[in-house]
Amino acid sequence: MAEIVIPTKQLSVLDESMDLQDALKAFVYSEDDVLPVLDKTHQIFRGNIYLLDLYKHLAKDPNSTTSITQFIKNTNKYITKKDCLLQTLFQFGNLPYLAVLNEQHHFIGILRHHSFMKLLEKIWSFDHAKYVLTLDYENVDRAMYQLSKVIHRRCEVLGCMSLTNASPVGHKQLLLLLGQETTEKNLRECLRKLEKRHFKIDHLLTLP
Question: Which residues are in the CBS domain (predicted)?
């Protein structure tokens, strides 16, 4: 995922010491409506500032030179280099980008939403998928062996992702992407055999 992170030196960023007028000038040279705010060392991520919020304030006080700190939002909307794909997906929400931090929690750049979604499409081949299956395998011995023995004989597997690291209680879960050649009959048989081996069918989504 590192290859789609935009590094700090290629970004327009705001310094927390700026006032509103300084921030507006920074937005002029940026194509974004949202910019990250960093501390004076440009290492610590403080949050984001939205251009619309500045305009709303200026409408009331056109000559304002107030500090930008009162406009900071999304202070916890960041990921680290070690976060998995699912953790990243959950963090995005409706944000245009996420701040990316290194092991020392220093700001190193941003990950744009559209770049991340393109990466997911590339990894998961959604255009060729028919089903998304989520399995809980908390109580299954030799789970990967059992899964492979059952599912590869009957279903076309396009991708497999572990959700364990993203689970708040550490449940052992897998998300499987099944291809167009997977028939409904084979899928039902596969699910029956998985449940017999103590897999729990957490969710099954049929893609349009």
Answer: 7-65
